[in-house]
Specification:
single chain; 277 residues; alpha/beta; Spore Coat Polysaccharide Biosynthesis Protein SpsA, Chain A; two-stranded antiparallel ribbon; 13 strands; binds 1-O-phosphono-alpha-D-glucopyranose
Length: 277
C-alpha cells in the first residue's frame, strides 16, 4: 500500500519571475486551479490521503490554500459563488497536509531527503507539481494510479518515463533498461543519467515528475554526493537501487505538460480551457 505522497515544493521558480517573486510557483494557476492542487487531486485519485509537502521560504500560500479560510467561507456562504470552493473544500476534508521546510536548495534528492521526517519507513509516492499530468480519453486512470499497480507487482522503486526528442535529453533524467515480462511499457532499469547531453544519452526515455520510492532511498541519499549542477540528484540515488535490479521504469498512458516552462504552461492552459468549452 502507498499511503503518503511527497511534494517537493521548495524551488524558486525563477523561470516565472517576476510572477514567482512573492508567489510559490506551485500556486500558479492553470485556469482557476493552482498546479499543486492538480497534483493533490491525482494523489487522491490514486487512493492517497496523506500529503507531505517540502516547502521553503515564501511558500506559505500553499499552506493557506489547503486550509479553511473562515472569512472567505462566511462571505461566500449561500451565494451563487459557493460552488467555486466545493472541490478544494472536499480535498481539505479528505486529506491531511503536513509540511517541513528545506532550508537550503541543494537539489531534488536533498528535497526528498528533507521529507524523510514526514514519510518515515514506508514506500511513498512523489509528485513534482510542475509536471502536470492528466488522463486522456483512451485511459481513464491517473498516472499515479497506474504506477501503484506496477508497484504492487514489482515491489521496488518505480519511475514514470516518456520518450522525448533526442535534443532534449539534457532537461531530464534519462534511463536505459530492458523490457520485462514481454511488455513494451515496463523496463527494468540498468542505467540512469541526470540531464545528459544528447551525445551521451543512452536512450531518449526521460523520467518525468512521478516516482514511487522505497524507503531505503533515504539512506542512499544520505551517502549520495552532489552530482549534476552541484546538486544532490534523486537520479544518482536511484541508480544505486537500479544496480540491485530494484528500479522499474513505466511508460505511462496519459498526457504530461511541462508547466515549469512557459511553453508547457501555455499549452496546459489551452488544453484545459479547450475542455471547458
Ligand atoms: C527533475 C529531475 C529529473 C527529471 C525531472 C522531471 O529535474 O532531476 O531527473 O527528469 O525533474 O520533471 P528538474 O525538472 O527539477 O530540473
Amino acid at each position: 500500500m502507498i499511503n503518503k505522497c511527497l511534494f517537493p515544493a521548495a524551488g524558486y521558480g525563477t523561470r516565472f519571475l517576476p510572477a514567482t517573486k512573492a508567489t510559490p510557483k506551485e500556486m500558479l494557476p492553470i485556469l482557476t486551479k493552482p498546479l499543486i492542487q492538480y497534483g493533490v487531486e491525482e494523489a487522491v485519485e490514486a487512493g492517497i490521503h496523506t500529503m507531505a509537502i517540502v516547502t521553503g521560504r515564501g511558500k506559505r500560500a500553499i499552506e493557506d490554500h489547503f486550509d479553511t479560510s473562515f472569512e472567505l467561507e462566511q462571505q461566500i456562504e449561500g451565494t451563487s459563488k459557493e460552488h467555486l470552493l466545493s472541490e478544494i473544500r472536499s480535498l481539505i476534508s479528505e486529506c491531511t497536509f503536513s509540511y517541513t521546510r528545506q532550508r537550503e536548495m541543494k537539489g531534488l534528492g536533498h528535497a526528498i531527503l528533507t521529507g524523510e521526517t514526514l514519510i518515515g519507513n514506508e514506500p511513498f509516492a512523489v509528485i513534482l507539481a510542475d509536471d502536470l499530468c492528466t488522463n486522456t480519453p483512451d485511459c481513464a486512470q491517473g498516472i499515479l494510479s497506474q504506477m501503484i499497480k506496477v508497484y504492487e507487482k514489482y515491489q521496488c522503486s518505480i519511475v514514470a518515463i516518456e520518450e522525448v526528442p533526442l535534443d532534449q535529453t539534457n532537461k531530464y533524467g534519462i534511463i536505459a533498461g530492458n523490457p520485462v515480462d514481454g511488455t513494451d511499457n515496463i523496463y527494468r532499469v540498468t542505467d540512469m543519467i541526470e540531464k545528459p547531453d544528447p551525445k551521451e544519452a543512452p536512450t531518449n526515455m526521460a523520467i518525468i515528475g512521478r516516482y514511487i520510492l522505497t524507503p531505503d532511498i533515504f539512506n542512499i541519499l544520505k551517502e549520495t554526493p552532489a552530482g549534476k549542477g552541484g546538486e544532490i540528484q534523486i537520479t544518482d540515488a536511484l541508480l544505486e537501487q537500479a544496480k540491485q535490479g530494484n528500479v522499474i521504469a513505466y511508460k505511462f498512458d496519459g498526457k504530461r505538460f511541462d508547466c515549469g516552462s512557459i511553453d508547457g504552461f501555455v499549452e496546459a492552459t489551452n488544453y484545459f480551457y479547450g475542455k471547458t468549452i
